[in-house]
Specification:
alpha/beta; Rossmann fold; six-stranded mixed β-sheet; about 25% strand; binds adenosine-5'-triphosphate; binds magnesium ion
């Protein structure tokens, strides 16, 4: 098994609030890995750090053997001058589906998908990928000329996932895809995530407050509390873990 993403001893601060404290996580290619944790535990911060949207105070993040993020304090002088941007990280094959979906509500579904392909130069490839998305999410095909604001919450989440896939990523980061959606809709979305992983071989890093859904959908899991990793194990083992059952599964 090949390690695709390696997060090593990272810390992130907002002013004097330390949101992540010496966090290390590893994602193997082809896996679905979940990160569970309460409100404010630092889940979104971790995903933003991977995308280069928040600077690291300590540590490094490596994707496919190449360092994509590094704390300034441990950079060489040369490294300080070649800043790796979010676009470059995306171009290496990571796509984020942000919390709250962040769709462009006044744009049509098709225009949103085009935005997801901004790094793709080949128009034919963009057209092919869009067709593949309309096959995979038929509701998006049926609504492609409609403004996104007319879509339901679940449909908007599907569109946000499709938009991320338009870049042809090797790994997608999903920030609470089930947030605010009805259980049946969440089940639909998780089924799609599983297909994206199994059929398209996209590695998945899933952040969720809905611990039961996330652990059932994944191979490996991490638990974050107050910015620290407090548990890591196979998802099957975490589902049986007393501490997880009491704190996250309401058992
Ligand atoms: N831009 C910011 N400025 C200052 N503090 C922030 C900022 N973003 C997040 N924080 C703080 O950092 C901590 C971690 O927040 P984060 O959004 O990463 O948590 P989360 O686990 O994603 O929470 P939620 O489940 O509510 O989405 C919280 O204490 C939060 O208040
Ligand atoms: Mg969050």
């Amino acid at each position: 098994m090949k390690e695709l993403l390696s997060i090593d001893d990272i810390s992130v601060s907002y002013g004097n609030i330390r949101a992540l404290k010496n966090v290390s996580m590893h994602v193997n290619e082809g896996d679905i890995v979940c990160l569970i944790g309460a409100n404010g535990s630092g889940k979104s911060t971790l995903l933003k750090a991977i995308m280069g949207q928040e600077p690291l105070v300590s540590g490094t993040i490596t994707f496919d053997g190449e360092e994509i993020c590094k704390a300034k304090s441990i950079m060489t002088r040369k490294e300080r001058h070649k800043h790796i941007t979010t676009d470059l990280i995306a171009a290496r094959g990571i796509a984020l589906v942000p919390e709250g979906r962040r769709v462009f509500a006044d744009m049509t579904v098709e225009e949103n998908l085009d935005m997801g392909a901004f790094l793709v130069r080949d128009d034919k490839l963009i057209a092919e990928r869009k067709e593949a998305m309309y096959d995979f999410f038929p509701i998006l095909g049926a609504r492609k000329r409609q403004k996104t604001r007319s879509l339901s919450g679940g449909e908007q989440q599907m569109m946000a996932i499709a938009r991320a896939l338009m870049s042809g990523p090797r790994m997608i980061l999903l920030d609470e895809p089930g947030l605010g959606l009805a259980p049946l809709v969440i089940a639909d979305i998780f089924e799609k995530i599983d297909l994206i992983n199994k059929q398209d071989k996209v590695t998945v890093f899933l952040v969720e407050q809905n611990a039961r859904m996330a652990l059932r959908a994944s191979n490996e899991g991490y638990v974050l509390e107050n910015g620290r990793v407090v548990l890591q194990d196979s998802s099957a083992a975490l589902l049986e873990n007393e501490q997880v059952r009491a704190a996250y599964l309401g058992e």
